[in-house]
Predict the 3D structure of the following.
Amino acid sequence: MKFARKIKFYLIRLFRLKSGVRQISLGFIVGFFPCWFPTFGVGPALSVLLTKLTGGNVPSAVIAASFGSFMWPILFLMNYKAGEILDALRNVLYGKQVPLEQIAAAQPVKQVTSLADVGMHFVVGSVFNSIFFSVIGYFVIYFIFRRYRQPILERLRKKGERRQPAQG
């Protein structure tokens, strides 16, 4: 329950930021961008630096970097799977023959024959995911803030007015 309250608190802070919608969206996306790569602890600092360089909102970048730090295992898997899919698409597009045994043996856990293939899948997936989800995410967050920021703040204001005792 305590974790849910913290998430709610930071979401409220995010919606109350004084910056424009463009700066908040840019800060959130640029802050989340390094989370797609293994940064070994310097991800939040890198997020703040990149956000300052691009003119985004720093508090939204810190919130995004914190959120991304908890999502790292999911992002790692998404990077690897995206790299695998892109490699398979490359093979199909260039007419490379894929052995029937490899297709038939498609199991959740496959035998790793070369760490270079795993690393290449991860790197290609990381680059693809970071670019693809940054572009899509910017427009999604921009739309959410543009459309729902005022209604959410008005709802929070009304709840705050109901809680205050009458002064007299």
